[in-house]
Amino acid sequence: MKLQVAIDLLTTEAALEVAGQVAEYVDIIELGTPLIKAEGLSAVTAIKNAHPDKLVFADLKTMDAGELEADIAFKAGADLVTVLGAADDSTIAGAVKAAKAHSKGIVVDLIGVADKVTRAKEVRALGAKFVEMHAGLDEQAQPGFDLNALLLAGTEARVPFSVAGGVKLATIADVQKAGADVAVAGSAIYGAADPALAAKQLRAAIN
Ligand SMILES: O=C(CO)[C@H](O)[C@H](O)COP(=O)(O)O
Question: What is the ipTM of this complex?
Fold first, then answer.
């Protein structure tokens, strides 16, 4: 299983600092949606230039204009770009077209999708590289949030998947057991007192 760090900080400078601290322990470096909204796609270029050996993930969460938005992110240096599973099939197909043109990949984020198992199968058929079983920061803050529902959906969908939703040291082994291809950890890494140590421990827990 790969480890992805999601950097939900607001400046390129801060993102570069965290990426530099944790790169040796992760496979994929994600530029979070708030960071891209704050800094633009130049943040993606800066991270790719600093870490050309890592997969750089631009969390655009595209909902429309799939081909156009994915194309500009790939041109900026992204290897993986997200489109929302709630988007129209044509939006996802358009983004996949852009990914094929750049020999890169589209990840479909199933945040907010009620039937994640069915949609995962549909978007995989449309050409998604993998799907993200994702409970967002707001959903995680709701009482009763349960990561296990995401893990179950991933296992049942039988397509390549990542899991994002407050993944941490206490839960990353369960993510691996569920058969995930990628574990995404955001606040557990960038919010830690020592991000390098947090990433190292997460990596050790899945090796
Ligand atoms: O995409 C996101 C929010 O929409 C986050 O990057 C993702 O949820 C991972 O962060 P965390 O581990 O803190 O949940």
Answer: 0.97
